[in-house]
Amino acid sequence: MTACALCSADASQTSTVAPGIETIALCDTCLAGVTDGPTDGAHWHCLHDAIWSPEPAVQVTAWRLLKALPGAPWARDLLDIAYLEPDVQAWAEADLPDENAVIHRDTNGAVLAQGDTVVLIKDLPVKGAGFTAKRGTAVRGISLVPDNAGHIEGRVEGQRIVILTEFVKKS
Question: Quick one: which of 48, 65, 79, 131 is 20 to 30 A from 96 by CA?
């Protein structure tokens, strides 16, 4: 039986390390951590050895798991001393979401995207335009304000207005 590349337990499956085509053998616990995200626990201390593996795919997987454990002081310390070759580091960072990305969410917590249609959940007086945008009004083709997660832009009664995301729901 093959050993898990991270913890040396009996491996039951293989996992492709995106965006590459290389695969590594993983036990059920490590595979669950890779797919669903790890939770701090004794099992993940195996990453102390895995991060120093001579195999780049193992290093990438270990680095990503350590990065997914920001609340674990030991994981942060290990990331601080870990060294990956520049091409391996770029591979490790390739599929990670941008930490500084602004995520726009409606009143229910649904993620809003450019071009979505939203519905107003409250009557909103529009300053400077002299009208009130009525509850239930559909705003089609919204634009996201790039530096403010609480604001979107859309057309209501022919006027381009800024709308607070707390007063809309995605439709």
Answer: 48
Can you read off the two tokens belonging to residue 100? 């500084």
pLDDT of residue 95: 67
Quickly count: other Cβ atoms within 10 Å of residue 146's Cβ.
10
**Mean pLDDT of all residues belonging to the chain:** 90
DSSP per-residue string spanning 87-140: HHHHHHHTTPPPTT----B-TTSPBP-TT--EEESS-EEETTTTEEEPTT-EE-
Q: How far is CA 146 from the centre of its chain?
A: 17
What is the tens place of the pLDDT at every residue in 15-48? 998 887 899 999 999 999 988 888 888 899 999 9
Contacts of 28 (CB under 8 A, 6+ apart): 12, 13
